[in-house]
Each structure stands twice: as structure tokens, then as C-alpha cells.
Design brief:
The chain is α/β, with parallel strands linked by helices and 279 residues long. The protein is built from 15 helices and five strands. α4 packs across α5 and α9 crosses α10. It comes from Thalassospira lohafexi.
Amino acid sequence: MTATSTAASAHEHDDEPIWFPPKETLDELKKDFVSGQALSDLPPELPISQIIEHPELFQPRELDERHIHELRRAIRVEGVLDAVTVIQVGDKAILIDGHHRRASYKLANVTKPVPVQYFQGSLEEAVLEAGKANSKTKLPMITSERQNYAWRLVLLGTYSKKQVCDASGISDGQVAIMRRAEKALGEEAYNFDDWRRARDAFNKREREPLDDEQMEQWLESQANDYADRMSREFGKKLPQNTTIAARALDIYFGRRLPELVIALQEYLPEIEDDEEADF
């Protein structure tokens, strides 16, 4: 019996199953999935609106806004990008790989169908394929993303150590630690979608929350560190070229640029009445 099934059995007496979004999604998709479905009659292109996302199951990492921006520019030049990978579940095409491409199509307001390729395999295999595909792209997952994805696979309780290692790219030693953590934490393990927090709980080293003063000190320290790095990299170039700086921030922040603009309001100097009169 796996650690997942052991944890689930603990709920049999109170009829309160563990709530774990990736597992919930996987179970729901299984209801409509047909093994061995013929794919030859499926269309090679689909409208963006018909390509369904389930990032909690098939997206191993956060989207990179700059990459989305670059892909949007490529769409304007080339029209279409490489085919995204989907798995057919009933009458729905579920996205496995190509989340950045789908986001860039939406950003570019593409309305015509886009190229797709169909994954031939089970839903469980599709989850592993999502991790492998992200490891091969020009934006490979960073270490924390690999660890979080591996932790998700461990919590799903379906995969062998080798499968988790191959899909996430982390060592079998790390997977072994994750499995021990999942077993030791029991139901509590499902409260953590971040491996670092789960590891801290496992090691009984949960961090004490910072009070307001400590949080302010931490924010100020981080901001100064970022400012120092920008100063070393750009010198006076950014302050003296605000138009270029604005374009760079638009590329870097992408769809989150409005959040930056709102945050910056707090730091803008107040305009005196006599200054307003000049306008």
C-alpha cells in the first residue's frame, strides 16, 4: 500500500477524503478518458478556446512573462508557432505542453486555429510527459521548480522513484527524502505544494512568521540588493533613458506590468500646487 493510500485510508472513518487539487483533476479526467482512442480523425489544428488548461496537473513551473512576450513577437512575424501537445479526453483537448505558446497566442489575439499534436498514452503518462517536455525546452525548469514538480508526483502516489526522477530531473536520493517526508507528514503533506515548506515541516524546522518590523526590514534589504545589482549592471543608463527603461519593464513584467504600476504609486512624489499650475 502506498503512502498516499495509507493517508487516504485514515479518512475512511470520517468520510472526509484528502483534498489535493492535482489528484482531484486527474480523477475527474479519468472519468472521460478512453484508452486506445483513435487519433487519426482528430483535427491537426484547434482554436485556442478549445485547448483546455489544467496547470495544477500539467504545468510544472510558473510562466515566464518575457518568454511569452518573445513568442508573441514571433507570432507576428511567423504567424504560428510549433504545435502544442494535447491529450484527448472525451470531447476535450487537454494541454500537456505548450502553456507559454497558448498564453502568447491569447496575448496576440489569435483567433484562427493553431497546430496541435496528440499525446498517445495514459493520463498518468501524460503528467510525466509534461515534466519531461519542460526539461527539454529552451527555458528549462530551475531547481526549485523541478523539486516542486517531483513533490507533486510523489503526492499523487502513482509513480515509481525512477519515473519521478526521469520526469523531474532530480536525483533518486531527493525523491527518497520526499517519499519519507510524505509518509511522515501523512495528511499534512497535502497542505504543501511547495517542497521547501514541506521539507521544513518534515525536519520540524518551520519558520516563525516575521512581524511587521522584521518584514519591512527584509523588504528594504531585498530592494536595496536589487537596486545595487541594477546599478552595477546599468550604471546611469536606465535613469537617463526612461523610455527604454519603460519598454524593458514592459517586456520583463509582461501581463503583470499593471501590478507594478499600481505598486509604484506609493513611491511617486506629490506634485505641489504651484507645479501643477505650470501645466
